[in-house]
Each structure stands twice: as C-alpha cells, then as structure tokens.
Amino acid sequence: MDNLRQLQQVELDILKEVLKIFEKHNITYFALGGTMLGAVRHQGFIPWDDDIDIGVPREDYEQLNSIFEELPKRLKYCSFELDSTYPYYFARVEDEQIIVKSVRAEEEELTPAWVDIFPLDGMPNNPVLRKLHACRVLYARMIFQVSRFNSIVNVKRTNRPMYEKVIIMGVKKLHINKWVSNEKSFQRLDRILKRYSTKKSQYYLNGMGAYKLREMHEKRVFGNGTYYPFEDIKICGPQDFETYLTQLYGDWRTPADLTHHKVVEITLDSTEVIG
Question: Topology of 3-120+201-274 in CATH?
C-alpha cells in the first residue's frame, strides 16, 4: 500500500469518528469538493486525492467546539477559537499519531493526518447586495491568507489566475505578511462571513473553499442532502450533485488531477516511516 492510500485510510477512520458525533448531536453536514466528486464518480476517494472536505451550516458549525470534546483521545479538534496559533480559518480534526510531510507552501509542512470541516455561510438574497458582499468576503479572505502566507498559501500551485500570481509575488518580495495581524485578520473575516444567517438566506457559501465564489450555491442544490457510497460507508452530500459538481469542475465526469498537496511521506510514530 503506497503512502497516499495509507493516508486515505487514516482519514477515513477520522471521518467515521466525526460522523458518529454528528449523528449523536443531529449536526447537518455535506461532503464538499473532491470528497463529493469522489463519492459520485468513484464511490470513495478520487485515486489521487489526499484529504476529506465536509461542510457544516454555520448554526451547527458554532456547536463544534463543545461537542468534539467527545472525540477519542488520539484525535484532536482544532480551531482558531481554541488555539490562536492554529493557522486556518476552518476547523480540522487531526490524528496526532500520524504525521504527514507534504510540500505545498513556502515552508515544508509536517502536520497530523486531518479531515477539514468548513463552515457554510449565508449570502444576501438581493443580487446586488450579494455581489457586494462577495467582494468583501474575497478581500477579507485575501488579507487573512496574507497574514499566514508562509504556512498556508500553496505557492507551488500552477493553475492560478494572473492576479493571484501577482499578489503572491508582491507578498514574497515585500514581506507584506509581516505587517498583517493574524488575530485581527481572523476576526475581520469571521465577522464578515457570519453576517448573513443561513436560515434566512437562499444560498450556502463555502467562503474558504479552494474555488472561491464557485463554492456559492443555492440551498436547493444541497436540499436535505442525499447519502452516497464512500469507501465502506455512506456520506451525506448535496442532493443535486449534477449542478454542484458542474459548477465546481465543469466536465466533472472526465478524470483530472485535482489534488492540492504533495504527500512526501507518512510517519506512524517517532521511529517508523512508511514509504
């Protein structure tokens, strides 16, 4: 079994524990991005995918800091609210016994194996206000990522639009990230994303998703969710998978390498290295 497949198996085990807690506390969730694509097209992981992404509507997402105290001891729920040194806006559940070395940012990453949990936020129903709010979200997201440039920005990604490449080049040359407060940028982004309730909105936005505003969908696309086969379990995903996946990927039926990271090796403990 190669490194990537081992990582996928570890992440699946983490997901199973997460879903047990979701079921116990009636937490609504949906598979997102490559996880949803894998469920529909492969009935499991995309063969080259290295993470699991799920989304939770904001009202339920706000409960996670407390309910994840019930995780098994080997697992840790990570969020900025619980740890100001945590680099991401969205939450993660990590298995600290499994260390993954990957290359995607300016610094080589050594991280526990993880499952990402994204908040799904509301947007204005008025189209003009929706466009204005989308601009605010993108700007706040950019400032947040600049504040954590060395640890979270994937500088090796080649398919970026030109404006992103220019911003990245400017940050690297001028070291702008040194002048941006981590805490203030988080608080600003958090306040903007939470501005519109999902209960009153006709939309869900995964504001920290890789595909930015393409990850804004009408709530009817998600509906009440549908269960899809995923490896040896079933996971809940958007009901209208055709609309969801087409908006994200275009011709999603044609396989293409969509992985965001490069896994170098996996360490199961302090002495054993797989690979």
Answer: Beta Polymerase; domain 2 (3.30.460)
